[in-house]
Amino acid sequence: MRTKDILTATAVAMAAIVMPACDDDNDGWREITNGNTYTSQDGKSDGFAKGADVSWLTEMEDNGIKFYAADGTETECMTLLKSLGIGAIRLRVWVNPEGAYCGKDDLIKKAARAKQLGMDLMVDFHYSDTWADPANQGKPASWTDLTFEELKKAVADHTTDVIATLQNVGATPKWVQIGNEVGDGMLWPDGKASLSSANFAELVNAGVEAAKAVSPDIKTIVHVQNGWDFKTSEWIMGILKNGDVDYDIFGVSLYPGTAIEELGSTVSATDIVEITLNNLETLAKMYNKEMMICEFGYSVSDPDKGYECLKRITDAGKKSNSISGVFYWEPECYDWNGYDKGAFGEDYKPLHTLDAFAE
After folding, report:
1. pLDDT for residue 24 is more than 90
2. Which residues are catalytic?
């Protein structure tokens, strides 16, 4: 998205913080009166998911990394995360990755571990052989020459195969993401939303229908980047509505530090969190969808601010009928592969950031 569009979208979201975001029927949505309040509904009955994406875990373990509780006791990573109040695990899956990690077999190993601990599971389908994100939505190499109809079938077949395999080992996911950070679609160029919104909607629908065919109870998610960017989220949700895509949850990523880097220091980390919470409540009202923060991360160098931001989200989620969960993206990291937004220290003990999950 162009800088001009980002700033416009942010202005809209900031305005929403000081303007009413509710209908006159007063059905539980509270008017926003200041920057510290956002619209919400009380009495959420299905709980609030507190999760972590640990897709790097097996690779880290194979490289000799071990994890420790605050008292120095060596502890298996998922077990440690569960003890900190995290009840769900998110794992990405690539189609035919180079190397041993994040393919179907690696996914199954990690998913089985999570299920053995009684944790819920989210599977994040990238529909690529490598990272799928706002700048990269390349097709798997084996799908490159497929027609569009064949591409839809490939999406459906891959989705079916992965979920059915997980089901067979007793690790059926609770949630399935159909694509990762699809702010301009997926499987480019065929499914690039700015080129063909209809194609994008059809590809998402192929994944949604495949997931539901294996297990009707699975909740399907469409996930975009930059939860503070109202314009992109609204655009994608509009495309999905126009395409009659029957997904369950709309998810966003929230990296306050990244937002500040893009928008400048006129906004703070807490501003970005408030904007995002407000956006999610407003979009839920507009489109009648459950909302989720599928990725959150904050600089490992400032665990106090990371805690403050994450605590605001978890406190908000407990009150909201619309926002159903937050997943920390790779908290087990400390500068792993250059990622600086983990929530473990250099000694691989959890930082204060993660206390927000336990409270």
Report:
1. no
2. 181, 295
Q: Which long-range contacts (CB under 8 A, 24 or more apart) does 137-144 make?
A: 137/182, 137/184, 137/185, 137/186, 137/187, 137/188, 137/191, 137/192, 138/188, 139/187, 139/188, 139/190, 140/94, 140/95, 140/96, 141/96, 142/95, 142/96, 143/95, 143/187
Read off the pLDDT of residues 166-187 as tens digits, 9 standing for 90 and up: 999 999 999 999 999 999 999 9
Q: Model pTM greater than 0.85?
A: yes
Distance CA 134, CA 119 (A): 29
Which runs of consecutive H residues, i.e. helices, occur in the chain?
Answer: 3-17, 57-62, 77-83, 104-116, 148-168, 197-214, 230-242, 256-263, 269-287, 303-319, 355-358
- Tell me the Ramachandran region of residue 159: left when phi exceeds 0, alpha when psi lies from -120 to 50, beta otherwise: alpha
Q: Reduced to 3 states, what is the DSSP secondary structure of residue 12?
A: helix
